[in-house]
Amino acid sequence: MKKELKVFFKIFTTTKDAIEKFMNMLNPVIQNASDDHERLYYHHIYEEEEQRLSRLVELIPLISKFEQEKDEKDFTPTNNEFNRLLQELNLEKFGLHNFVEHLDLALFRFTDTERSTLLNELRDVSYRDYQQVKELLNEINTRFDHDYVDPHAHHDEHHDHLARPASPTVVTKSKRKKGFTVGSLL
Amino acid sequence: MKKELKVFFKIFTTTKDAIEKFMNMLNPVIQNASDDHERLYYHHIYEEEEQRLSRLVELIPLISKFEQEKDEKDFTPTNNEFNRLLQELNLEKFGLHNFVEHLDLALFRFTDTERSTLLNELRDVSYRDYQQVKELLNEINTRFDHDYVDPHAHHDEHHDHLARPASPTVVTKSKRKKGFTVGSLL
Ligand SMILES: [Fe+2]
Ligand SMILES: [Fe+2]
Question: Which Pfam families did the record assign (chains A, B) (predicted)?
């Protein structure tokens, strides 16, 4: 478990940094929004990432504490603290998933080289990290066979839609859930 | 505390129902999206509400359990379970906040009478409920004076921007954070 905690620590430290870069990009866009809809749209994404940032500020030291102070014997399904940590990590798995989508949404709009290059970099790292967190949590859940049922597990199975074609500059167009088709408003 | 738990139970049961109505509205929009950007946009909001729904499915029975099985003496800052509950409630306070914004974003696009009427109803209830959850949690935090520091508290102070003018059909145009102005992309 210590090995996994090291990976979680690295991933969430990286994504914390990525949030800050993304928020810095959104700031002038919000300031200069041309109408209320646009302003709300980017401000909303900004706030969701800000909420995630606040949670990570608490979670990262907790991961660190677990890694340094706990023994392998503390990582049991009967340990409340440990279950709590797993639940927080599960929440942040979805935080990472949503972040990838925020970056994809931004990639549709910020098509200039400077911003799209940064967004694509953040997107690739975040997507890879999301996949790894998902795998690690699945593995931990299996290993401990504890009674925690992931309420989102059914959903995850369909989440290949986050994957995108080989080229890192092509915005996720394929592999989305089947059954989506044509005609409306945005 | 039992009285507050009753209110939380009612609010989160109501919002669970509201999520389902909103998801039903989004479903055909996603199915009929005219392009990938639009599809991702509504699908993203759909997923965030779906994640919230999954959390509420766990939280509502927990509130209920606390209300029925616990004594007032269990509601102390030294009770881990109680602190846990407060932290979950705090997360769902932000879930409600984000829901109000999802509804506001939808109101910019779904301007037909049928959908805008439903969206406005959901919006008004959710906004009122968000305010009440915020007040109750502030009050509880003060009363117990426990060591839980709300990482979002600084942010909430600026959240009057959710308020909107008297008319329930006018989409939130005023009271937004000062300093936002003109020019860009959506
Ligand atoms: Fe989002
Ligand atoms: Fe959102």
Answer: IMEF_Flp
